[in-house]
Design brief:
This protein is mainly alpha-helical. The protein has 4 helices and no strands. It has one domain. Helix 1 crosses helix 2 and helix 1 packs antiparallel against helix 4.
Length: about 100
């Protein structure tokens, strides 16, 4: 699974958290994939801790869960975005160096 695919899966889970149980193997795999790229690590851990099933929960509880997941997802997203920005700069820098050598 690619990092961007994992990010999309986690984002969809946040959006669907009030409608269905999002504690699935697919979500856990996506979080495992994203965890090495996230700093601080508590973002992924906090997301995992809030994956409780929706059975027997009221609307207010589900809204609260979704808001927490959104906060954690925002941190995960920013970490992945920063990593991708660094990689893009490195790639464009390497391409620029190669062109100037010619």
């Amino acid at each position: 699974m690619r990092v961007l695919e994992a990010l999309k899966i986690v984002e969809e889970a946040v959006l669907d958290s009030k409608k269905r149980d999002i504690d699935t193997p697919e979500i856990r795999e996506a979080l495992n994939r994203l965890e090495p790229f996230c700093a601080p690590k508590w973002q992924v851990k906090g997301f995992r801790n809030n994956l409780d099933p929706i059975t027997g929960r009221s609307g207010a509880d589900l809204e609260g869960q979704q808001q927490l997941l959104r906060v954690y997802f925002g941190g995960i997203y920013r970490s992945v975005r920063a990593l991708l920005q660094v990689r893009i700069v490195r790639l464009t820098g390497n391409m620029f160096e190669q062109e100037t050598r010619r």
